[in-house]
DNA sequence: CTGAAAGCGCTTACAG
DNA sequence: CTGAAAGCGCTTACAG
């Protein structure tokens, strides 16, 4: 079992002190070019890399970010993670991903471990159970910035980066108006979620403001299966009208599409379909579903730059809302 | 910025030595019950937790597993990760997830960082570019076990845990035979991937052995879009026969289904559809697609127990194949 | 039963 | 320009 090379080994081989090696390797100006070159050559040869545990113990900094998400099965999070990783690489930080499984207890454990490992910062989408801000405030006391994204707490003074629920709902509603569709079945998620309230409220308002008498029926589904059931039971009474189905999320879209397929209906001939989505499910159908996209990668960029500002010392808490964009498929 | 409590702080407050505190906290038999109790009480109160960097520097062990996957957008990996996390928790290990983005260079960096962090072990699904075994052998030299899963190298003497490609292909072929379908369009992935060769070979063999003259046409697609294109161009000539489409993966299924929808065909009336899948895409359609499932969570359990055996000292390299199971939808 | 001491691998203020 | 020394927080063989 071979050991990794250390400063000491390099120092011994070159008959210099450990301090000198350490300095040479970080291009300290004091070191003579000659010595510096020799040391770096040998380090290269030996594939030296500092022991991160020793460095951290000494410097109290890990140059490592943690991303905590409730679940991995989510395109939105993938693109968020991807863009954080990309940015982090540029700044010389590494990224570790943790999954809370939407379990507040596991989330706590992860936070604790992040604290002990003195990560440089945490990006977190909280679980739906999370109601205690204390662990997060504790991170702050320890000087570890926390950026909440997507699923954020109610608590005011913290950094939050969210998708623009209102804006996405607005885009979808506008598209429906543009297509001049008079009847709309809006399928929304759990009415207790803030995201549901925001999307529903905006969606309804925009349609109403349009003046022309649109008929909007809204229903709530807590799961894909429920969305399927509801859609299935409602479709018969809508089939002879000109109408569209609006799905506020991918989960709901999946259920609704199953019901629509089951009834043998096809968009856009038999009905219009439009959704708010992270961008993968809509592409599985033909024609592709038109949707207002909530983009994780842009959110990631925003979150990252906020993080860097926190690390640089900004203690000012901020809520950033990212705007959505309409991706036109052929379903409406 | 508050500091985490240390052994020293506890020792000072209790007027004992650091050694005593350290021992008490790990229930060393030498410590008197009285002292032990006092120390543990204070530690509890102060929420003491050992600094993992110091521990590692001292002991050379991290009790942390790394999971490296090319991509996160994969149900199979989610369930694999989930089951590793579950097992690890039981044994007191933590798990960090890394994403190589299917980029061999990034994969190398991750491996290097795992080596320096002296993770206790690595579970890895390699990128499609990975061709150099050297970094993996190096892990071995450093005493870090590597368990390959799903995407594994050709290299013989290493630990591999794979889905049963042959078995999955067999199940799909048998279902086709059972349904008595004479014409089969088999859509496979990149012919250079071992997974493609294994699935194709078995699928073809089983169909041939069936005796009755089945007609199998096989094509290869490197992406979802390509699968769509190919399916689209071939469908016309098949439409007047009784036939089935077999998709060797989710990616291909997604493309093929788009073409099928585009042509206005519906399973099982107009054609049969069957796939090998991780289990999410088939559920988006109505009727649900029948598929041979490759289950990540069972693979995770197998990989984990192999890992524990490696840690316990087994140097015996082993290849484990997990069997598949048929999930019947209504598409064939 | 308890403590002093060495050492894991690094960084950095201090001295020369 | 270079080195000796202290110290980050822990563990553990050694001594008592």
UniProtKB/TrEMBL annotation, chains A, B:
Protein name, UniProt field: LacI family DNA-binding transcriptional regulator
The keyword Transcription is annotated on this UniProt entry: yes
Organism: Pedobacter agri
Pfam families (alphabetical): LacI, Peripla_BP_1
UniProt cross-references to InterPro entries, sorted A to Z: HTH_LacI, Lambda_DNA-bd_dom_sf, Peripla_BP/Lac1_sug-bd_dom, Peripla_BP_I
Keyword Ribosomal protein: no
GO MF annotation: an example: transcription cis-regulatory region binding
Xref: SUPFAM superfamilies: lambda repressor-like DNA-binding domains (SSF47413), Periplasmic binding protein-like I (SSF53822)
The organism's place on the tree of life at top rank: Bacteria
Keyword terms, alphabetized: DNA-binding, Transcription, Transcription regulation
Domain spans labelled HTH lacI-type: 5-59
CDD domains per the UniProt record, alphabetical: HTH_LacI, PBP1_LacI_sugar_binding-like
